Amino acid sequence: xxxxxxxxxxxxxxxxxxxxxxxxxxxxxxxxxxxxxxxxxxxxxxxxxxxxxxxxxxxxxxxxxxxxxxxxxxxxxxxxxxxxxxxxxxxxxxxxxxxxxxxxxxxxxxxxxxxxxxxxxx
Length: 122
Known about the structure:
Number of helices: 4
Protein backbone atom coordinates (compact mmCIF):
# COMPACT_ATOMS: atom_id res chain seq x y z
CA UNK A 1 0.00 0.00 0.00
CA UNK A 2 0.88 3.64 -0.06
CA UNK A 3 1.70 5.49 3.14
CA UNK A 4 1.36 9.24 3.04
CA UNK A 5 4.31 11.26 4.35
CA UNK A 6 2.73 14.53 5.46
CA UNK A 7 6.08 16.30 5.84
CA UNK A 8 6.61 15.90 2.07
CA UNK A 9 3.10 17.10 1.21
CA UNK A 10 2.20 20.62 0.10
CA UNK A 11 -1.30 22.05 0.03
CA UNK A 12 -1.64 24.92 -2.43
CA UNK A 13 -4.65 27.10 -1.59
CA UNK A 14 -6.07 30.44 -2.63
CA UNK A 15 -5.19 33.27 -0.23
CA UNK A 16 -8.76 33.60 1.01
CA UNK A 17 -8.73 29.95 2.15
CA UNK A 18 -5.33 30.00 3.88
CA UNK A 19 -6.59 30.47 7.45
CA UNK A 20 -9.16 27.71 7.09
CA UNK A 21 -6.54 25.33 5.64
CA UNK A 22 -4.13 26.09 8.48
CA UNK A 23 -6.87 25.28 10.98
CA UNK A 24 -7.89 22.06 9.23
CA UNK A 25 -4.33 20.74 8.76
CA UNK A 26 -2.85 21.93 12.07
CA UNK A 27 -0.48 19.36 13.52
CA UNK A 28 -0.33 17.18 10.40
CA UNK A 29 2.98 18.46 9.05
CA UNK A 30 1.46 19.43 5.70
CA UNK A 31 3.00 22.63 4.32
CA UNK A 32 0.37 25.16 3.25
CA UNK A 33 1.26 27.68 0.55
CA UNK A 34 -0.67 30.37 -1.27
CA UNK A 35 1.79 31.54 -3.93
CA UNK A 36 2.97 28.32 -5.56
CA UNK A 37 5.25 25.30 -5.49
CA UNK A 38 7.36 23.14 -7.75
CA UNK A 39 5.85 19.85 -8.87
CA UNK A 40 7.54 17.26 -11.10
CA UNK A 41 9.93 19.84 -12.53
CA UNK A 42 7.31 22.47 -13.31
CA UNK A 43 5.73 25.28 -11.31
CA UNK A 44 2.17 25.48 -10.06
CA UNK A 45 0.67 28.62 -8.61
CA UNK A 46 0.29 32.30 -9.22
CA UNK A 47 1.57 33.86 -12.45
CA UNK A 48 4.20 35.72 -10.41
CA UNK A 49 5.46 32.51 -8.82
CA UNK A 50 5.59 30.70 -12.18
CA UNK A 51 7.39 33.64 -13.79
CA UNK A 52 9.99 33.78 -11.00
CA UNK A 53 10.50 30.00 -11.18
CA UNK A 54 11.11 30.14 -14.94
CA UNK A 55 13.44 33.16 -14.60
CA UNK A 56 15.54 31.32 -12.02
CA UNK A 57 15.75 28.24 -14.24
CA UNK A 58 16.65 30.25 -17.33
CA UNK A 59 19.35 32.12 -15.40
CA UNK A 60 20.99 28.85 -14.37
CA UNK A 61 20.76 27.52 -17.94
CA UNK A 62 22.36 30.67 -19.34
CA UNK A 63 25.31 30.08 -17.00
CA UNK A 64 25.52 26.47 -18.22
CA UNK A 65 25.44 27.60 -21.87
CA UNK A 66 28.25 30.07 -21.14
CA UNK A 67 30.31 27.24 -19.62
CA UNK A 68 29.62 25.04 -22.64
CA UNK A 69 30.72 27.87 -24.92
CA UNK A 70 34.02 28.07 -23.05
CA UNK A 71 34.45 24.30 -23.37
CA UNK A 72 33.53 24.41 -27.07
CA UNK A 73 36.64 26.40 -27.94
CA UNK A 74 38.82 23.40 -27.11
CA UNK A 75 36.40 20.45 -27.25
CA UNK A 76 33.52 21.24 -29.61
CA UNK A 77 32.23 17.66 -29.92
CA UNK A 78 32.00 17.24 -26.15
CA UNK A 79 30.23 20.58 -25.76
CA UNK A 80 27.78 19.79 -28.55
CA UNK A 81 27.06 16.37 -27.08
CA UNK A 82 26.44 17.86 -23.63
CA UNK A 83 24.07 20.38 -25.21
CA UNK A 84 22.12 17.88 -27.33
CA UNK A 85 21.89 15.03 -24.83
CA UNK A 86 21.52 16.97 -21.60
CA UNK A 87 20.98 20.67 -21.41
CA UNK A 88 18.52 21.05 -24.30
CA UNK A 89 16.14 18.48 -22.81
CA UNK A 90 15.80 20.45 -19.57
CA UNK A 91 14.30 23.51 -21.17
CA UNK A 92 12.35 21.49 -23.72
CA UNK A 93 10.53 19.83 -20.84
CA UNK A 94 9.84 23.10 -19.07
CA UNK A 95 8.55 24.66 -22.28
CA UNK A 96 6.11 21.76 -22.71
CA UNK A 97 5.09 21.65 -19.05
CA UNK A 98 4.44 25.40 -18.85
CA UNK A 99 2.93 26.57 -22.15
CA UNK A 100 2.77 30.25 -23.14
CA UNK A 101 6.08 31.07 -21.46
CA UNK A 102 8.26 31.60 -24.52
CA UNK A 103 9.07 35.22 -23.62
CA UNK A 104 11.03 33.96 -20.61
CA UNK A 105 13.43 32.02 -22.85
CA UNK A 106 14.75 35.08 -24.74
CA UNK A 107 17.92 35.34 -22.63
CA UNK A 108 18.63 31.67 -23.24
CA UNK A 109 18.15 32.03 -26.99
CA UNK A 110 20.52 35.02 -26.97
CA UNK A 111 23.18 33.02 -25.11
CA UNK A 112 22.85 30.19 -27.62
CA UNK A 113 23.04 32.46 -30.67
CA UNK A 114 25.76 34.78 -29.43
CA UNK A 115 27.99 32.41 -27.47
CA UNK A 116 27.48 28.67 -27.94
CA UNK A 117 26.86 28.46 -31.68
CA UNK A 118 29.80 30.72 -32.61
CA UNK A 119 32.04 28.76 -30.24
CA UNK A 120 30.95 25.45 -31.79
CA UNK A 121 31.40 26.60 -35.36
CA UNK A 122 34.71 28.30 -34.65
